[in-house]
Structures
1.
Amino acid sequence: MPSKFRAALVSVVMLFCALLPATASAVTSTQRDLNPRYTAQSVPSDELFEEQWSLADDSLLGVQSAWDVTTGGSTVVAVIDTGADLAHPDLRDNLWRNPREIPGNGVDDDGNGFVDDVNGADFVNRDGDPSDDNGHGTHVAGILAARGANRVGVTGVAQRARLMVLKALGADAVGSAETMAEAVRYAVANGAKIINMSVSGPGRSQAFEEAVQAASDAGVLMTVAAGNSGHDLDVAPEYPAAFPASHVIAVAATGRSGKIIGISNRGVGTVDIAAPGQGIVSTAKGGDYEIRTGTSMASPHVAGALVLLSSARPDLGPDALQAALLGSARRGVAVTTGTLDVAGAMRRMVSAARWRSAIRASSVRGTSKSKATRARGRAS
Ligand SMILES: [Ca+2]
Ligand SMILES: [Ca+2]
Ligand SMILES: [Ca+2]
Ligand SMILES: [Ca+2]
């Protein structure tokens, strides 16, 4: 066996998931702005919305402004991670359904090797149930597309989407490159337009790289975590962030100050964009909510933004979506472009007339402030 292939077989995709200390105070001690700037925009009813700092202050990413155009839609987006809590009240209504698979009949109806893979598949245990035995994937899925405006918990950057849940990391949040590659191929074969991979590791696997390149060639956009080693990927590359495929979008993590946080990797030649990844509240295993920190949390912000852009302009291909996303990023951090600006990207996607009428409509509609509730933050 050639050594390169052997190296590919044994290379491991390490997942770095730094957690905030279990400080419920991090979510409860927030000073409330009694006269918020976002009153004219689309504030959803989700009870923890005001704890979602990256969304609640619309001057940061402009997600609420983008919601005036669309809150999401039927875009299929795959999350390759530790799986997800499929019964979570904030996720279950946004799950992808495999149209060729009859649920619960014990038969692999679509002949893809997985029995009853209705919402995705489990490449670790090789079954059709990608339930989460870690919690990382549930959190990532919620940042991307927790159901918005359902009065429950949080909202994703995309309030609506079809989440394809692909479990490629085990209970220890580690997975092999071959397993990651399989999950990427499943996503492409089943119509995912966007794939989020909040994983990173220094091993360069040929099998994984080929799957990512094939997905990129097929026009699938992949948002990936830059990794949490705190170094420059131009000097010390990690993957999949440093794969050269053109539709790989590597994401660094910023904090509330707008600066890239210390643990986040960076690199003007390798990391494409930055997005919030510190103290992010999202869905947790067991129908719960929790706060996590890391580039794993930044990447799904960008994936959610792509769902919004794709929903606003389903007629446009991946290059146009990617150009709007990266072209609108705000300069000033050590990545190729800058910090995610969802409103700026949306403005590039829709006509000036549609943008103005969306903003007008939301001003007339008015909003009520969402109820701030204590987040049951816990670090696991
Ligand atoms: Ca099947
Ligand atoms: Ca079946
Ligand atoms: Ca399973
Ligand atoms: Ca919700």
2.
Amino acid sequence: MGSEHSLLVIRDHAAVGWTVRPCRERSIRTAIVSRGGGGAVPIVTIPARTLADRGVREEDAQPPRTARPAADSLDARPAAARAALDDLRTGRHDNQERNSTMNPPTVLVTGATGTVGSALIPALQAHGVTVRAMIRDPARPVPGVENVVADLADAAAVAAALDGVDAAFLNGPSTPDAAALQIGFADLAHAEGLPRLVLLSQYAANPDSAVRFLRWHAEVEAHVRGLGLDHTVLRPNLYLQSLRAFAGTIAQGWFGAPVGGAAVSVVDARDVADAAAVVLTGAGHTGAVYTLTGPRAVTHAEIAAALSSAAGRDIAFHDTSAAEFSAALAGLLPPWQLDGLVEDYAHYARGEAATVYTSVADLTGRPARDVADFARDHAALFTRS
Ligand SMILES: NC(=O)c1ccc[n+]([C@@H]2O[C@H](COP(=O)([O-])OP(=O)(O)OC[C@H]3O[C@@H](n4cnc5c(N)ncnc54)[C@H](OP(=O)(O)O)[C@@H]3O)[C@@H](O)[C@H]2O)c1
């Protein structure tokens, strides 16, 4: 398509085919696709390039005469989704202008399908904001919210995802280029005039750390600080949800890791999400760095005891050597990730992740979840099948 216009695409489930029309002057072409279905209607924003890959053709840019007008189909959408559509239709992406309206603020959630992201979406909804979930697979939209399809490596799609949002949650992926991807996102956010960025980092992020992931997080934190963007950093400790990776051997009554008897102030990812929701929606957190932990530091043997108690059967913790751990996971994880995981566990084993912080309670106004709460709520995962 030769014009400089973006495209607004509405899939009207009462009509056949796509309704495609220009929506604003911008070199980045985006599209909004709403899917049929009762109740909450997921809205998916897709870069035009992706649409082309999926068979939307140039000729489709002319609205089919038989299709209902786009405005009709908007009437069936939730109010927040209509507002998002209206913004794109009018080309408005000035955040102050948005804030001066009665529309609830819009928060972009990256990693929306991930451990924290998936818990953050309902937490944000409880705060009354409009959620825009950034996803990679348009076939798997997050129900009940606006979805935008973007890979962090796709600058045009990320810029479109950021358009008009009032705050964004940046959750880096577990990939070797995680730092570069997050820095790219932050640069685009800065260029787009994003009013607030909440960055998910990690406990003990440090440029001199022996753990590569902590060095990468420190690099991203430093870059974001240097941009002068309104931002807040969250540094969670090891998620209790990481135990789900051990479900296979836990089903056999044990799990192992090279951590010895060291205590770790593990945190429930739901608390990370709840804290993030507070920071994304409330004032007074600019420039803050919050380290997020559980209410106490526990050894892996104590974690095993909590799982045993919740599952009603014995689950043992086996301390392993780093070599045994690596050998067991070789072939399951790429070398960079396996080596990074071994570095992570060595850091835990040295007792470097045992300090308890009160940030979760301070931010949310209630105590952080304990390992016993996690074990109780996830007992089904750890019950022998
Ligand atoms: N795990 C822990 O205990 C822990 C503790 C502290 C901090 N952290 C930090 O948390 C972050 C997330 O790690 P995690 O293991 O918990 O992963 P996760 O958030 O559960 O999953 C990664 C998420 O990122 C998305 N994603 C992956 N590659 C992407 C890309 N190129 N562009 C856009 N989105 C992409 C995935 O989407 P798809 O569904 O499309 O794959 C998924 O939603 C990391 O920075 C990690 O260091 C983790």
